[in-house]
Amino acid sequence: TPAPAVLRAEGRVTVVDLDGEPEAADGAxxxxxxxLPDLSDPAAVCAADPLLVTTAYVTGAALAGVPGTLDGPExxxxxxxxxxxxxxxxxxxxxxxxxxxxxxQEPAERALxxxxxxxxxxxxxxxPALAALADGAPWRVRWARHRGDLNPPWPGPVTVLGAAGxxxxxxxxxxxxxxxxxxxxxxxxxxxxxxxxTVPGRITxxxxxxxxxxxxxxxxxxxxxxxxxxxxxxxxxRLTEAVSATLARHPGTAxxxxxxxxxxxxxxxxxxxxxxxxxxxxxxxxxxxTAVAAVESETPFVCSGGADGSVRLWTPGxxxxxxxxxxxxxxxxSLHATETPHGPLVAAAWADGLxxxxxxxxxxxxxxxPGPPVRAVAVTGAGSLLVGTDDSLVCLAxxx
Length: 400
Prior knowledge:
This protein has 400 residues and is of the alpha+beta class. The protein has two domains: 34-136, no CATH class; 160-398, Methylamine Dehydrogenase, Chain H, CATH 2.130.10.10. It contains six helices and 26 strands. The chain has a four-stranded antiparallel beta sheet, covered by helices on one side. A hairpin with a 7-residue loop joins β22 and β23. α4 (107-116) packs antiparallel against α5. The longest helix is centred in the middle third of the chain and has 16 residues, at 234-249.
């Protein structure tokens, strides 16, 4: 006699007798569980009840028979699968994206999240199928690298991100928990070497300067400079030394840089712009400043994010704008901004896993939730969004 199947949904426990009528744990009658979708079919998975799909992937319910049933012969592995229960890599991608897929959303958005979470060992038929299903989503996936990927290899866990300009144009800087900063080619995330630095401990922020120097903030709030191949002008050397001396006495919590200016946030909620013409300060946040970014444009401006959940814009020498660019009930964990051919873009990530891309000069706000906690975000000069987690690095481009 088959054993009863136990299903849990929305706090209710239901025991399904496979030979008789379903009943609740208290003996009351209950409706039969809905049929399982084909767990190897991306279209069926994206359109199905996400809690049902998650339960099936976790318990392996469909392995007892053909997809959609609870008994019968075990299905054969599909091409690209290591084992039968991976469903061509679809199960791994679903479990990697986690809670993002269980939100109320359109199938196209769910397909986008799955596509962004798909590893390089997945069934080669899944990627084009998911891309077609995600055609109605506001993003397209340029590339994605995950733990376990081999071609190209996964670059490691992400704690900080930077998109370089100047001599390092087209290069991404990816810092990991050990303090190593890897250089990647922006086009495909292949390796371009490592940053030669000797900063002890963890790096909490990095800021590529236009002259090729990379500024680093360590976990004690101290500043370090890694010089590029070209010699630095003496005035930039003096500026960096002055900022470094200040942070040795008053540690920083966030860091950014543009031509002739270094921007630092502190634990009391203030943002400090050190420039060639002097020091400008703004009391922008209630509590710790968790991220800053600076944009070189016709009117240079600073973005700052805080533990108070707000993202604010400020032009040094002027008052901070009274209204935040965006404010949410979750701390900002990462922030990056840059000038693009279509105007400035600001990317922000919050501790609850949401990432948004904003256009301060007007335009729609685009959102993305990869599933795992987001550690860092960055925007490239072409307008692509980079999202880094402990297990993934994903590059998305807004659909025009």
